[in-house]
């Protein structure tokens, strides 16, 4: 593996069989993900973006093909190896924040910090996402944007090598969405985490080092951006 490649997807396919209907969500798709890059995956609904992200994160398995992370072959990994991979290497941010309702912001983040050997400081990460005055609030006492910041802090406190985000701004208004993208860009820049953002919003591609376009389970185009635009300057 080239030494700046963090993850390799080699001809991965994913087929769902439901009775008589077969859906080919991914068709022999290959992609190298580079260390420290910010990658945006674009494509219409049903093009296979989330399936690919879930496979990258060890939350789903392939029907065929190989998934290589460092010197691990995740496509041949058992449950315990995949659990260790998800815990130690990957942070997830979803459209809906999936916070635990009866834990405070601080406790939600601490729960994730306790999973790994060398977490960052819960307080510091909550401060970085601008929640210093909200640490002891419960999710129901926070706005959607604030809840998404908690979920970013929860992912970032593990200091993961890979931060995977599935439509992170999908449930947020325009200004709040841009703030959230700014936080993801900051984690990429300052902590060096490789960040992958799945979205159907083409404008978000402007903040990426590379943009991957998908259609019908295949990558149709990979664009390298010579310059990146900071999220506050992106318009849609
Ligand atoms: N668990 C599943 N069982 C059956 N089919 C599935 C499953 N998950 C995804 N699919 C199908 O696989 C295809 C790709 O879905 P996927 O969610 O990866 O697309 P997407 O590009 O992320 O779409 P969206 O933008 O709407 O989230 C779709 O046709 C979808 O219906």
Characterization of this structure:
This protein is of the alpha/beta class. It is 28% helix and 29% strand. It contains six helices and ten strands; from the N terminus they run βββαββαβαααβαβββ. Helix 3 packs parallel to helix 5 (144-156), helix 4 packs across helix 5 (144-156) and helix 5 (144-156) runs parallel beside helix 6 (174-191). The protein is globular and about 50 Å long. The N and C termini lie far apart (38 Å). The model has no long low-confidence stretch (mean pLDDT 96). The chain binds adenosine-5'-triphosphate. Residues 16, 18, 23, 25, 43, 45-51, 200 line the site of adenosine-5'-triphosphate (ATP). This is ABC transporter. It comes from Desulfocucumis palustris. Keywords: ATP-binding, Nucleotide-binding, Transport. Belongs to the ABC transporter superfamily.
Descriptive keywords:
single chain, 236 residues, alpha/beta, Rossmann fold, four-stranded antiparallel β-sheet, 6 helices, 10 strands, globular, binds adenosine-5'-triphosphate
Number of helices: 6
Small molecules bound: adenosine-5'-triphosphate
**Annotated CATH architecture:** 3-Layer(aba) Sandwich
- Helical content, roughly? 25-40%
Query: What is the CATH homology-level superfamily?
Result: P-loop containing nucleotide triphosphate hydrolases
What structural class results from the helix and strand content? Answer: alpha/beta
| Quaternary organisation | single chain
User: Separation of termini?
Assistant: 38 Å
Number of strands: 10
Beta-strand content: 25-35%
Mean pLDDT, nearest integer? 96
Rg calc: 17 Å
Shape: globular
CATH class call: Alpha Beta
Q: From N to C, what is the helix and strand string?
A: EEEHEEHEHHHEHEEE
Strand order of the largest sheet: 6-7-8-3-9-10
Largest sheet composition? 6 strands, mixed
């Amino acid at each position: 593996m080239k030494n700046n490649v963090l993850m390799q997807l080699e001809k991965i396919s994913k087929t769902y069989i439901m009775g008589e209907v077969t859906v080919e969500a991914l068709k022999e798709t290959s992609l190298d993900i580079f260390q420290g890059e910010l990658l945006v995956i674009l494509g219409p609904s049903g093009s296979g973006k989330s399936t690919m992200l879930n496979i990258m994160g060890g939350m789903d398995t392939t029907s065929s093909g190989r998934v290589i992370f460092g010197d691990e072959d995740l496509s041949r990994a058992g449950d315990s190896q995949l659990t260790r991979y998800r815990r130690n290497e990957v942070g997830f941010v979803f459209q809906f924040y999936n916070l635990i309702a009866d834990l405070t912001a601080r406790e939600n983040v601490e729960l994730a910090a306790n999973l790994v050997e060398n977490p960052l400081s819960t307080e510091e990460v909550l401060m970085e996402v601008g929640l210093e005055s909200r640490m002891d609030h419960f999710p129901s006492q926070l706005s959607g944007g604030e809840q998404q910041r908690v979920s970013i802090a929860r992912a970032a406190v593990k200091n993961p090598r890979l931060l995977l985000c599935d439509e992170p701004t999908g449930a947020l208004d325009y200004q709040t969405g841009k703030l959230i993208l700014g936080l993801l860009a900051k984690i990429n820049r300052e902590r060096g985490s490789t960040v992958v953002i799945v979205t159907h919003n083409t404008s978000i591609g402007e903040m990426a080092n590379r943009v991957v376009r998908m259609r019908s389970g295949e990558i149709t185009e990979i664009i390298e951006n010579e310059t990146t635009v900071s999220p506050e300057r992106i318009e849609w």
